[in-house]
Amino acid sequence: MVDINTQLHAPARPVQPSSAWHNLRTSLKWQRGIRHMLSYVFLFIAASFMLFPLLWMISASLKPSWQIFTDPPIWIPQHWETINAGDTNREFQLYRVQHNDEEVTVMPIGSRRYTLVLTADALSALSVDSVPAEQLSEAVAASVTTASGETVFNVRTWQHPDGTTQAVVALARGEGDTLLIAPVDALGSIIMRMPLDIVNSGSRAEITVNQTELRGREIETDSGTQAVYAIGPESNFVVVAQTQVATTAQLVAAERMEEAGDEVIGETELRLSRLIDSPESGDYVTISVDSWQPILDESSLDAFAFVAQAEQLGERRIQEINGVSIETAPFTADDGTPDEVVILSTGTQRTLVISTTHADTLTLAEFGGLTTARGASLDRVPYRVQDGFADTDADSVRSVAMVGDPRQMALIVPVSAIENAFDVSPSLLTRAMFPQLRFDGYQAALETKVGNTYFPQFFRNSFILVILNTIGHIFSCVLVAYGFARLRAPGKNFFFVILLGTMMLPFPVTLVPMYEIFRDLGMLNTFFPLFIRSFFGNAFLIFMLRQFFAAIPRELEEAARIDGASQLQIVWRIFVPLSKPAIATIVIFTFWWTWNSFLEPLIFLNSPDLFPVAIGLNFFKDQYGTIYYDRLISASVLSMLPLLLIFFFAQRYFIEGIQLQGMKG
Amino acid sequence: MESTVPSPSHRRRRFQGFRVKSTMARREALTFYLFISPWLIGFVMFLAYPMLRSLYLSFTNYSLQGVPTWIGLRNYERIFNDPDFWQSLRVTLLFALGSVPGSTIIALTIAMVLAQPLRGVNIWRTIFFMPSVLSSIAVAILWLYIFRPEGGLLNIFLSWFGIEGPNWLNSETWALPALILMSWWTIGGQMVIYLAGLKAIPEVYYEAAEIDGVDQWQRFRFITLPMLSPTIFFNVVLAIIGALQVFDIGYVLTRGGPNDATLFYMINLFERAFQSVQLGYASALAWILFVVIMAITLLVIRSSALWVFYETEQK
Q1: Which of A210, A245, A209 lies closest to A228, judged by CA?
Q2: Among A3, A12, A299, A588, which has the highest number of CB atoms less than 10 A from its own CB?
Q3: What confidence category does residue B310 fall into, taking pLDDT thresholds of 50, 70 and 90?
Q4: For residue B281, is it within any domain?
């Protein structure tokens, strides 16, 4: 066939083709060319729909969780630059912003409220009307471009008595039920954004517009004193400073701070605070006040913590250990040795403590970062442990125990460290990022504990089941398929039809009795129900293999038969070696089904250490149903890998090896 | 052969030959049954017996503890008065109605394009097959992300066209369409079978058509479609059976919610059997599903006379 084609298509003969023939051939060629091109376009589009979700998933597995659901999406995993806040377990995320015509990297240290104002001069130049309220529609929030950027106004439609309409903004309430309005179009160019603190610091001033008194403020500007009228809305600007400020940050108990007024710093104004107990140390800027939790490495807790009886402990007091103020108490051991211990967790009558000399890993962590803690206990005194905790300056993660109570801590920086602060609209800040693949999700997934096991155990279970099922299927299907392909017996056709029929039987009808059977055999919560049936064949695989066996020429086995080989010998020495593609297909199908099987393990298993991957993936949730997205997506990618690999290497067999021709009819 | 009347000794010899053959045949038959015994035993133990047992249980009240008590048709009565049953049946049929034609058309279209002699057919084939290789749980999780109302891939894609996408999986209206959409993504298995079917169409038909000057549409309508109809039939039957038994994606993505909008039949059955442990009731549910599936399958098989073309009919 190939030869004929090449002869037809190859213009090998130097015979002058007739012009009509030539035209026909060219047009056919053209048609085919266009058809192929369209096919490629179609395939490309269809393939993108097929592949895109997968690529996106792989990309998501390499991102920090906050980047997974952003709009617009972040396609390439990025690393967000951060800087440590002094010695604390806190990082500042860095931003880039245009400032004085150059791009600078900054960190946010506070916020400042702004409002929109009109100067008295601008107001008097404005055509302001006083109209009855009923001529105005309800206010609708609309975005308006002003000289200082986009802003949202409450815009109303003014139904003028003469029939015309106009978009207006209400400035103030006038006499009776009237409103003072100004056209939106005119506001855009004259409205100004001003820090609310500056506006509010001005002395009160009356501005008269259209016989209506407006309460304005008189403020100092570069061009002298000016009366302004705030028409809002207010907006929050971010106060940013150079990143080195972070190195001077320190944590102090929030109750040690008091307010110390506002002060101009750099190009902005910030609220200051000072330490109540040492005001002479200067003024500080409080960056945040959060709940911080004392934590202790689980390893030091495991090694040195012990349970003390109530009568062994003296009066409790607050003490600073490693810069963490925490409850301590004098402890008297049974042999009378006195010691000072840190109170880790208080049970009824019994208290979990650790000697102050062994509390060197005691530190503070932001409470908000310890959301996935699990319960643990030592001698029945409970405490909570956060796995996968990472110090800001360390690459490794560890498990930390949450000890004592969380407290309000203020993160402060001395004013003297801030050289150049300015404020900027949040929309102008861009995250300081660079592309970087992040494998933490994978690491966290592999370290996730479910019951008494870790995630890799699920892989082990799945592989064990795959191997057992594969052995079972090869053993049973080869025998049964050979029987149906080569041996003659009364009733064979009858059973073959039944075999084909069972392929179409819905399995749910056997589910409940199957559960009963395996319960009666004492096999619930073991691997048996999940692989034992493979030793009894599978209709689809038997049929597939039979079709393959039937196509093997009989001559091959005749010689062996004459030599007196038994049927079994013929099967294992002749049929099996000749059927490698079909057997490979059985292996792949078995792998595929076993790996993806969900309902059956769900029914037959209940201890996590036996779960296969498909079920294990369902455990990336805490008891409240919160899904750990980054771990889950990494774990899903991991769960796909074995199948993708086996399919990639065996796809030739898989697709070519499916012999279903006999299915027709 | 020459003698017309067989001598008695000849007759005996023939008789003996028959006996030899018969013992051989008996031995072969025995070997056959030995060879297929794994499947036969499995058939009895894991299919025939459970089916009968489940039929019996469907007439009983049974909760694993104690013995089943016969209650006649009460389970069926209760089922037909249970709104959950009707909702789950409706949802499952709707799912099949959306999923089967959609995936059939998509798989068939892709297979037809891939059946042409194109470059990199292996790569294309792998790409289209890939989603089907993945475990339904991984697929479900992936789509959990895609269907997110904010930041989900689908709604971002829709927003490029100015469409504000719904909160797919949490919307009573859109949860089921979302699952149907998702089922259209995993068509690799069907596609492979169509490809095999297309390959099996003898080239001579197309060559004859080319000589007759038949256009593309006619080629498809009068050669490909009839010749492929048995394959389509096979795929559609399997797809319907599969769709009516759908469980994993609904269980992982929506747990039957919101407000039972995706309460697939198997989810209802699973909950009845293994969460509220009403095994008699669940068995009756299973048998109703069995009858529904068989009825639909038979209907499709019956209808196949009208649209499935068998080459042998012509001969």
Answers
A1: A209
A2: A588
A3: low
A4: yes
Extract the residue ranges of chain A whose pLDDT is less than 50: 1-14, 659-665
CATH of A453-663, one of 1.10.443.10, 3.90.105.10, 1.20.140.10, 1.10.3720.10: 1.10.3720.10
Chain B 131-150, CB below 8 Å of chain A: which residues?
131, 133-138, 141-143, 145-146, 148, 150
Q: If we measure between CA atoms, which residue out of A240, A237, A272 comes closest to residue A257?
A: A272
CA B212 to each of CA A366, A569, B206, B311: distance values in angstroms, whole numbers, following the listed order: 80, 54, 10, 21
B148 contacts on A by Cβ (under 8 Å): 69
Residue B249's nearest CA partner among B310, B164, B178 is B178
**Whether residues B113 and B14 fall in one domain:** no
In whole angstroms, give the CA distance from residue B253 to residue B261. 12
Please report residues of A whose CB lies closer than 8 A to that of B136.
596, 598, 614
- Cβ-Cβ contacts under 8 Å between A and B: the total is 272
Residue B244: inside a domain, yes or no? yes
The answer as to whether B264 is a domain residue is yes
The answer to whether residues B191 and B310 belong to one domain is: yes
Q: How many CA atoms lie within 13 A of A135 on its CB side?
A: 22
Alpha helix segments (H runs only) across A292-430: 298-304
Residue extents of the structural domains in chain A: 18-77, 113-234, 288-414, 453-663
State the Cα–Cα distance between residues A323 and A298, nearest whole angstrom.
Answer: 19
Q: Are B91 and B217 found together in one domain?
A: yes
Q: How many domains does chain B have?
A: 2
Q: Residue B207 is part of which domain span? A: 84-136+186-314
Q: What is the pLDDT of residues A320-376, one digit of tens each?
A: 888 788 888 888 888 878 888 888 888 777 888 888 888 888 888 888 878 777 888
| Bridge partner list, A224 | A221
Token duo for residue A271 = 């609220």
d(C-alpha A600, C-alpha A465), whole Å: 12
Q: Could you tell me if residue B158 is inside a domain? A: no
Length of chain A: 665
Q: Could you tell me if B303 and B222 lie in one domain?
A: yes
pLDDT digits (tens, 9 = 90+) for B260-291: 888 999 999 888 888 888 888 999 999 999 99
Angstrom distance (rounded) from CA B260 to CA B262: 5
Residue A624, H or E segment: none
Reported ipTM: 0.82
Contact residues, B window 69-108, toward A, CB-based 8 Å cutoff: none
B92 and B28 inside one domain:
no
Say if residue B131 is exposed, middle or buried (CB neighbours under 10 Å; 0-12, 13-18, 19+): buried
Residue A656: half-sphere exposure toward Cβ, Cα within 13 Å: 10
